[in-house]
Amino acid sequence: MDFDILDVIEDATKEADAFENHPVRELNMEEQVLYLNGLALVMNADGHIDDSEKEYTRILIKSIGLDESSLDDMVNFANAPDKDTVQAFFRTFRRRPIAQLFLFDALMMTRRDGKVEDKEVAVVNKIADQLEILKGTQQDIFDLFCHIKNRNWQESALYFSSHLLNPEHFKHLLAYHEVEFDELMTETTDIRRIRLLDVLKNKMPKAEAGENVKPKLDAEIVLPMLQAEVDRGNALVVNNQLTIKDDNSFGELDLASIGFEWDKESVSLYCSQQQDITNSAIIKKLISVLEVDSVADMIDILYQGAAKITKASINADSNSTLELTANANESFPYIEFNNKYYVLSGGKHSGYLWNKSKIFSGENFLEEIKGQVSLWYHASYSDNAGYLVEMSKDEILDVIFNEGVPVCSNT
Fold first, then answer.
1. Are the CB atoms for 169 and 97 separated by under 8 Å?
2. Looking at the domain 5-190, which fold is it?
3. How far apart are CA 190 and CA 291, in angstroms?
4. What pTM was estimated for this model as a whole?
5. pLDDT tens by residue, 84-107
6. pLDDT-derived band at 10, boundaries 50, 70, 90
7. What distance in Å separates the CA atoms of residue 174 and residue 149, rounded to the nearest whole number?
Protein backbone atom coordinates (compact mmCIF):
# COMPACT_ATOMS: atom_id res chain seq x y z
CA MET A 1 0.00 0.00 0.00
CA ASP A 2 1.65 3.22 -1.17
CA PHE A 3 -0.61 5.62 0.73
CA ASP A 4 -1.54 6.24 4.35
CA ILE A 5 -5.21 5.86 5.29
CA LEU A 6 -4.82 8.48 8.04
CA ASP A 7 -3.55 11.00 5.50
CA VAL A 8 -6.52 10.29 3.23
CA ILE A 9 -8.98 10.76 6.10
CA GLU A 10 -7.28 13.98 7.22
CA ASP A 11 -7.28 15.42 3.70
CA ALA A 12 -10.92 14.47 3.21
CA THR A 13 -12.09 16.00 6.47
CA LYS A 14 -10.20 19.21 5.69
CA GLU A 15 -12.15 19.49 2.43
CA ALA A 16 -13.82 22.86 2.58
CA ASP A 17 -17.57 23.12 2.60
CA ALA A 18 -18.88 25.69 0.15
CA PHE A 19 -21.18 28.62 0.77
CA GLU A 20 -24.39 27.90 -1.05
CA ASN A 21 -25.50 30.80 -3.31
CA HIS A 22 -22.52 33.01 -2.52
CA PRO A 23 -23.34 36.33 -4.32
CA VAL A 24 -19.90 36.51 -5.98
CA ARG A 25 -20.97 33.49 -8.01
CA GLU A 26 -23.22 35.86 -9.99
CA LEU A 27 -20.29 38.04 -11.11
CA ASN A 28 -18.46 37.40 -14.33
CA MET A 29 -15.19 35.46 -14.16
CA GLU A 30 -12.98 38.55 -14.45
CA GLU A 31 -14.80 40.17 -11.52
CA GLN A 32 -14.58 36.96 -9.50
CA VAL A 33 -10.82 36.80 -9.97
CA LEU A 34 -10.46 40.47 -9.01
CA TYR A 35 -12.57 39.84 -5.88
CA LEU A 36 -10.22 37.03 -4.87
CA ASN A 37 -7.16 39.17 -5.66
CA GLY A 38 -8.51 41.85 -3.35
CA LEU A 39 -8.75 39.26 -0.58
CA ALA A 40 -5.23 38.12 -1.43
CA LEU A 41 -4.01 41.58 -0.44
CA VAL A 42 -5.59 41.01 2.97
CA MET A 43 -4.30 37.44 3.21
CA ASN A 44 -0.68 38.60 3.04
CA ALA A 45 -1.15 41.93 4.84
CA ASP A 46 1.02 40.79 7.77
CA GLY A 47 3.67 39.30 5.47
CA HIS A 48 2.67 35.74 6.32
CA ILE A 49 0.10 33.48 4.65
CA ASP A 50 -1.29 31.01 7.17
CA ASP A 51 -2.79 27.65 6.20
CA SER A 52 -6.07 28.67 7.84
CA GLU A 53 -6.23 31.70 5.53
CA LYS A 54 -5.67 29.41 2.55
CA GLU A 55 -8.46 27.19 3.84
CA TYR A 56 -10.96 30.06 3.92
CA THR A 57 -9.81 31.07 0.44
CA ARG A 58 -10.42 27.51 -0.72
CA ILE A 59 -13.98 27.72 0.67
CA LEU A 60 -14.59 30.91 -1.31
CA ILE A 61 -13.09 29.51 -4.50
CA LYS A 62 -15.30 26.43 -4.24
CA SER A 63 -18.33 28.60 -3.42
CA ILE A 64 -17.74 30.81 -6.44
CA GLY A 65 -17.31 27.82 -8.73
CA LEU A 66 -13.72 28.41 -9.83
CA ASP A 67 -11.06 25.73 -10.16
CA GLU A 68 -9.06 25.09 -6.99
CA SER A 69 -5.89 25.92 -8.90
CA SER A 70 -7.03 29.52 -8.43
CA LEU A 71 -5.64 29.26 -4.90
CA ASP A 72 -2.09 29.07 -6.25
CA ASP A 73 -2.79 32.13 -8.41
CA MET A 74 -4.06 34.00 -5.37
CA VAL A 75 -1.01 33.10 -3.30
CA ASN A 76 1.30 34.16 -6.11
CA PHE A 77 -0.55 37.48 -6.43
CA ALA A 78 -0.47 37.97 -2.65
CA ASN A 79 3.30 37.59 -2.68
CA ALA A 80 3.80 39.91 -5.66
CA PRO A 81 0.74 42.14 -6.28
CA ASP A 82 0.93 44.29 -9.39
CA LYS A 83 -0.33 47.85 -9.55
CA ASP A 84 -2.57 47.36 -12.60
CA THR A 85 -4.53 44.53 -10.99
CA VAL A 86 -4.94 46.46 -7.73
CA GLN A 87 -6.26 49.47 -9.65
CA ALA A 88 -8.63 47.20 -11.61
CA PHE A 89 -9.95 45.78 -8.33
CA PHE A 90 -10.81 49.22 -6.98
CA ARG A 91 -12.34 50.37 -10.28
CA THR A 92 -14.53 47.28 -10.35
CA PHE A 93 -15.85 47.34 -6.78
CA ARG A 94 -15.72 50.98 -5.71
CA ARG A 95 -19.21 52.18 -4.63
CA ARG A 96 -20.83 48.87 -5.57
CA PRO A 97 -23.12 47.36 -2.92
CA ILE A 98 -21.27 44.02 -3.13
CA ALA A 99 -18.26 45.80 -1.62
CA GLN A 100 -20.11 45.25 1.68
CA LEU A 101 -19.65 41.50 1.25
CA PHE A 102 -15.99 41.96 0.31
CA LEU A 103 -15.37 43.77 3.60
CA PHE A 104 -17.08 40.95 5.51
CA ASP A 105 -14.91 38.33 3.78
CA ALA A 106 -11.85 40.47 4.45
CA LEU A 107 -12.70 40.53 8.16
CA MET A 108 -13.10 36.75 8.07
CA MET A 109 -9.69 36.46 6.46
CA THR A 110 -7.96 38.52 9.16
CA ARG A 111 -9.36 36.30 11.92
CA ARG A 112 -8.57 32.92 10.39
CA ASP A 113 -5.22 32.48 12.11
CA GLY A 114 -6.60 33.41 15.54
CA LYS A 115 -4.85 36.76 15.84
CA VAL A 116 -5.27 40.15 14.23
CA GLU A 117 -2.16 42.15 13.39
CA ASP A 118 -2.17 45.96 13.27
CA LYS A 119 -0.98 45.75 9.68
CA GLU A 120 -4.02 43.64 8.76
CA VAL A 121 -6.39 46.16 10.36
CA ALA A 122 -4.68 49.02 8.52
CA VAL A 123 -4.94 47.24 5.16
CA VAL A 124 -8.62 46.35 5.62
CA ASN A 125 -9.48 49.90 6.69
CA LYS A 126 -7.58 51.34 3.73
CA ILE A 127 -9.37 49.06 1.28
CA ALA A 128 -12.78 49.88 2.81
CA ASP A 129 -12.09 53.62 2.50
CA GLN A 130 -10.89 53.27 -1.09
CA LEU A 131 -14.04 51.32 -1.92
CA GLU A 132 -15.94 54.33 -0.49
CA ILE A 133 -17.87 52.26 2.03
CA LEU A 134 -19.45 54.69 4.50
CA LYS A 135 -17.94 54.64 8.00
CA GLY A 136 -21.31 53.78 9.48
CA THR A 137 -21.71 50.89 7.04
CA GLN A 138 -18.23 49.66 7.90
CA GLN A 139 -19.30 49.54 11.54
CA ASP A 140 -22.51 47.69 10.64
CA ILE A 141 -20.50 45.08 8.72
CA PHE A 142 -18.12 44.66 11.64
CA ASP A 143 -21.06 44.27 14.05
CA LEU A 144 -22.62 41.65 11.79
CA PHE A 145 -19.27 39.87 11.55
CA CYS A 146 -18.99 39.75 15.35
CA HIS A 147 -22.54 38.40 15.72
CA ILE A 148 -21.94 35.70 13.08
CA LYS A 149 -18.56 34.77 14.56
CA ASN A 150 -20.16 34.34 18.00
CA ARG A 151 -23.25 32.58 16.62
CA ASN A 152 -25.45 35.33 18.04
CA TRP A 153 -28.26 34.91 15.55
CA GLN A 154 -30.83 37.09 17.30
CA GLU A 155 -28.53 40.11 17.22
CA SER A 156 -27.47 39.36 13.64
CA ALA A 157 -31.11 39.26 12.49
CA LEU A 158 -31.28 43.07 12.18
CA TYR A 159 -28.84 43.04 9.26
CA PHE A 160 -30.82 40.43 7.33
CA SER A 161 -34.01 42.50 7.30
CA SER A 162 -33.27 46.22 7.57
CA HIS A 163 -31.91 48.80 5.13
CA LEU A 164 -28.56 49.08 6.94
CA LEU A 165 -26.93 46.46 4.70
CA ASN A 166 -28.06 44.64 1.59
CA PRO A 167 -29.48 41.40 3.05
CA GLU A 168 -29.12 39.54 -0.25
CA HIS A 169 -25.34 39.72 0.11
CA PHE A 170 -25.35 37.93 3.46
CA LYS A 171 -28.18 35.38 3.47
CA HIS A 172 -25.78 32.64 2.35
CA LEU A 173 -24.20 32.88 5.81
CA LEU A 174 -27.43 31.72 7.43
CA ALA A 175 -27.71 28.78 5.05
CA TYR A 176 -24.08 27.84 5.72
CA HIS A 177 -24.77 27.71 9.46
CA GLU A 178 -28.13 25.98 8.90
CA VAL A 179 -30.17 28.84 10.35
CA GLU A 180 -33.69 29.11 8.91
CA PHE A 181 -34.27 32.68 7.67
CA ASP A 182 -38.07 32.84 8.06
CA GLU A 183 -37.95 31.31 11.53
CA LEU A 184 -35.26 33.78 12.62
CA MET A 185 -37.29 36.73 11.34
CA THR A 186 -40.38 35.54 13.20
CA GLU A 187 -38.48 35.08 16.46
CA THR A 188 -36.82 38.50 16.35
CA THR A 189 -39.58 40.87 15.22
CA ASP A 190 -39.51 43.01 18.36
CA ILE A 191 -35.78 42.97 19.02
CA ARG A 192 -34.98 43.94 15.42
CA ARG A 193 -37.07 47.11 15.67
CA ILE A 194 -35.46 48.08 18.98
CA ARG A 195 -31.96 47.45 17.65
CA LEU A 196 -32.61 49.43 14.47
CA LEU A 197 -33.71 52.44 16.50
CA ASP A 198 -30.62 52.13 18.70
CA VAL A 199 -28.23 51.87 15.73
CA LEU A 200 -29.69 54.86 13.90
CA LYS A 201 -29.90 56.99 17.02
CA ASN A 202 -26.16 56.46 17.52
CA LYS A 203 -25.49 57.43 13.90
CA MET A 204 -27.43 60.68 14.04
CA PRO A 205 -25.38 63.85 13.55
CA LYS A 206 -25.09 65.81 16.79
CA ALA A 207 -27.76 68.47 17.22
CA GLU A 208 -26.36 71.92 17.98
CA ALA A 209 -27.89 73.78 20.93
CA GLY A 210 -30.36 76.53 20.14
CA GLU A 211 -33.97 77.69 20.24
CA ASN A 212 -35.12 76.73 16.75
CA VAL A 213 -33.02 73.77 15.68
CA LYS A 214 -34.32 71.89 12.64
CA PRO A 215 -33.68 68.17 12.34
CA LYS A 216 -30.85 67.14 10.06
CA LEU A 217 -29.51 63.90 8.68
CA ASP A 218 -26.36 63.01 6.76
CA ALA A 219 -25.15 60.49 4.20
CA GLU A 220 -24.50 57.85 6.87
CA ILE A 221 -28.24 57.75 7.57
CA VAL A 222 -29.78 58.60 4.20
CA LEU A 223 -27.67 56.78 1.61
CA PRO A 224 -28.28 53.21 2.93
CA MET A 225 -31.99 53.97 3.25
CA LEU A 226 -32.35 55.21 -0.34
CA GLN A 227 -30.05 52.49 -1.70
CA ALA A 228 -32.28 49.89 -0.07
CA GLU A 229 -35.28 51.39 -1.88
CA VAL A 230 -33.36 51.05 -5.16
CA ASP A 231 -32.25 47.47 -4.40
CA ARG A 232 -35.83 46.45 -3.60
CA GLY A 233 -37.15 47.98 -6.82
CA ASN A 234 -39.11 50.65 -4.96
CA ALA A 235 -37.14 53.63 -6.27
CA LEU A 236 -36.29 54.86 -9.75
CA VAL A 237 -33.47 57.22 -10.75
CA VAL A 238 -33.63 59.13 -14.04
CA ASN A 239 -31.29 62.04 -14.82
CA ASN A 240 -30.11 62.09 -11.20
CA GLN A 241 -33.73 62.53 -10.01
CA LEU A 242 -34.98 59.90 -7.56
CA THR A 243 -38.64 59.01 -7.12
CA ILE A 244 -40.20 56.34 -4.93
CA LYS A 245 -42.94 54.22 -6.42
CA ASP A 246 -46.40 54.45 -4.84
CA ASP A 247 -45.31 57.37 -2.66
CA ASN A 248 -46.42 60.63 -4.25
CA SER A 249 -45.74 62.53 -1.03
CA PHE A 250 -42.00 61.92 -1.47
CA GLY A 251 -41.97 63.82 -4.74
CA GLU A 252 -38.92 64.02 -7.00
CA LEU A 253 -35.56 64.28 -5.26
CA ASP A 254 -32.64 65.97 -6.98
CA LEU A 255 -29.76 63.82 -5.72
CA ALA A 256 -27.23 66.61 -6.25
CA SER A 257 -29.16 68.77 -3.77
CA ILE A 258 -28.18 66.40 -0.95
CA GLY A 259 -24.65 65.71 -2.21
CA PHE A 260 -25.45 62.37 -3.89
CA GLU A 261 -24.79 61.06 -7.38
CA TRP A 262 -26.08 58.06 -9.32
CA ASP A 263 -23.83 55.41 -10.85
CA LYS A 264 -25.90 53.88 -13.61
CA GLU A 265 -23.45 51.07 -14.35
CA SER A 266 -23.37 49.71 -10.79
CA VAL A 267 -26.99 50.75 -10.04
CA SER A 268 -25.86 52.48 -6.89
CA LEU A 269 -25.91 55.81 -5.10
CA TYR A 270 -22.77 57.40 -3.75
CA CYS A 271 -21.94 60.47 -1.73
CA SER A 272 -20.04 63.07 -3.76
CA GLN A 273 -20.18 65.77 -1.08
CA GLN A 274 -20.81 65.46 2.65
CA GLN A 275 -23.47 67.92 3.82
CA ASP A 276 -26.37 68.31 6.23
CA ILE A 277 -29.61 66.88 4.83
CA THR A 278 -32.73 68.72 5.99
CA ASN A 279 -35.15 67.64 3.26
CA SER A 280 -38.45 67.00 5.08
CA ALA A 281 -39.57 64.30 2.61
CA ILE A 282 -36.40 62.31 3.39
CA ILE A 283 -36.88 62.72 7.13
CA LYS A 284 -40.51 61.62 6.88
CA LYS A 285 -39.37 58.63 4.82
CA LEU A 286 -36.95 57.65 7.58
CA ILE A 287 -39.73 57.92 10.16
CA SER A 288 -41.87 55.66 7.97
CA VAL A 289 -39.05 53.12 7.57
CA LEU A 290 -38.52 53.05 11.33
CA GLU A 291 -42.27 52.66 11.91
CA VAL A 292 -42.14 55.37 14.58
CA ASP A 293 -45.69 56.42 15.51
CA SER A 294 -44.95 58.65 18.48
CA VAL A 295 -43.74 62.19 17.84
CA ALA A 296 -41.95 62.01 21.18
CA ASP A 297 -39.97 58.95 20.03
CA MET A 298 -39.26 60.59 16.69
CA ILE A 299 -37.86 63.74 18.34
CA ASP A 300 -35.79 61.60 20.69
CA ILE A 301 -34.20 59.81 17.72
CA LEU A 302 -33.66 62.87 15.50
CA TYR A 303 -32.13 64.93 18.30
CA GLN A 304 -30.34 62.12 20.19
CA GLY A 305 -32.33 62.84 23.34
CA ALA A 306 -31.27 66.52 23.42
CA ALA A 307 -34.81 67.70 22.66
CA LYS A 308 -38.11 66.36 23.94
CA ILE A 309 -41.80 67.02 23.53
CA THR A 310 -43.67 67.54 26.78
CA LYS A 311 -45.96 64.69 27.77
CA ALA A 312 -49.07 65.08 29.90
CA SER A 313 -50.90 62.72 32.24
CA ILE A 314 -54.01 63.14 34.38
CA ASN A 315 -53.40 64.24 37.97
CA ALA A 316 -54.13 61.53 40.52
CA ASP A 317 -56.43 63.82 42.53
CA SER A 318 -58.23 65.71 39.77
CA ASN A 319 -59.44 64.65 36.33
CA SER A 320 -59.37 68.33 35.35
CA THR A 321 -55.65 68.75 35.96
CA LEU A 322 -52.80 67.58 33.72
CA GLU A 323 -49.31 66.88 35.03
CA LEU A 324 -46.53 67.77 32.60
CA THR A 325 -43.17 66.01 32.27
CA ALA A 326 -41.56 69.44 31.84
CA ASN A 327 -42.68 72.99 32.49
CA ALA A 328 -44.87 74.50 29.77
CA ASN A 329 -42.49 76.17 27.31
CA GLU A 330 -43.65 79.14 25.25
CA SER A 331 -40.87 78.58 22.67
CA PHE A 332 -42.05 75.00 22.05
CA PRO A 333 -45.61 74.79 23.43
CA TYR A 334 -46.52 71.32 22.23
CA ILE A 335 -48.03 68.55 24.34
CA GLU A 336 -48.51 64.83 23.78
CA PHE A 337 -51.46 63.39 25.68
CA ASN A 338 -53.15 60.03 25.14
CA ASN A 339 -51.30 59.59 21.82
CA LYS A 340 -52.68 62.87 20.50
CA TYR A 341 -51.01 66.22 20.06
CA TYR A 342 -51.89 69.70 21.26
CA VAL A 343 -50.47 73.19 21.29
CA LEU A 344 -50.68 75.47 24.32
CA SER A 345 -51.86 78.96 23.45
CA GLY A 346 -51.63 81.81 25.98
CA GLY A 347 -54.74 83.73 27.04
CA LYS A 348 -55.61 86.64 29.32
CA HIS A 349 -53.55 85.29 32.24
CA SER A 350 -50.89 83.47 30.25
CA GLY A 351 -48.34 84.24 32.95
CA TYR A 352 -49.96 81.45 34.93
CA LEU A 353 -49.50 79.02 32.06
CA TRP A 354 -45.86 79.18 31.05
CA ASN A 355 -43.08 77.59 33.08
CA LYS A 356 -45.61 75.63 35.13
CA SER A 357 -45.69 71.85 35.54
CA LYS A 358 -49.50 71.64 35.72
CA ILE A 359 -52.35 72.92 33.60
CA PHE A 360 -55.91 73.29 34.86
CA SER A 361 -59.34 73.26 33.23
CA GLY A 362 -63.02 72.85 33.97
CA GLU A 363 -63.08 69.92 31.51
CA ASN A 364 -62.80 66.27 32.43
CA PHE A 365 -59.60 65.04 30.76
CA LEU A 366 -60.79 61.45 31.06
CA GLU A 367 -63.15 62.29 28.23
CA GLU A 368 -61.90 62.72 24.69
CA ILE A 369 -60.61 66.21 23.98
CA LYS A 370 -61.72 67.62 20.67
CA GLY A 371 -60.85 70.95 19.12
CA GLN A 372 -60.03 73.53 21.79
CA VAL A 373 -60.18 73.47 25.60
CA SER A 374 -60.09 76.60 27.77
CA LEU A 375 -57.46 76.50 30.53
CA TRP A 376 -57.73 78.05 33.98
CA TYR A 377 -54.88 79.81 35.72
CA HIS A 378 -55.49 77.74 38.88
CA ALA A 379 -57.56 74.71 39.86
CA SER A 380 -59.86 76.99 41.87
CA TYR A 381 -60.02 79.98 39.53
CA SER A 382 -61.63 79.86 36.11
CA ASP A 383 -60.04 83.02 34.67
CA ASN A 384 -58.59 82.20 31.29
CA ALA A 385 -54.87 81.36 31.21
CA GLY A 386 -54.93 80.02 27.67
CA TYR A 387 -56.08 77.16 25.50
CA LEU A 388 -55.20 73.58 24.68
CA VAL A 389 -55.70 73.18 20.93
CA GLU A 390 -55.68 69.83 19.17
CA MET A 391 -53.22 69.33 16.30
CA SER A 392 -52.77 66.54 13.78
CA LYS A 393 -49.52 64.58 13.67
CA ASP A 394 -48.71 66.07 10.26
CA GLU A 395 -49.23 69.59 11.61
CA ILE A 396 -46.78 69.10 14.45
CA LEU A 397 -44.28 67.44 12.10
CA ASP A 398 -44.47 70.47 9.82
CA VAL A 399 -43.71 72.71 12.82
CA ILE A 400 -40.66 70.61 13.69
CA PHE A 401 -39.35 70.51 10.12
CA ASN A 402 -40.03 74.15 9.29
CA GLU A 403 -39.45 75.92 12.61
CA GLY A 404 -37.30 73.53 14.63
CA VAL A 405 -37.31 72.76 18.34
CA PRO A 406 -35.32 74.04 21.34
CA VAL A 407 -32.23 71.90 21.97
CA CYS A 408 -30.51 71.76 25.35
CA SER A 409 -27.05 73.30 25.60
CA ASN A 410 -25.60 70.39 27.55
CA THR A 411 -25.47 68.04 24.54
1. yes
2. TerB-like (1.10.3680)
3. 12
4. 0.83
5. 999 999 999 999 999 999 999 999
6. low
7. 12
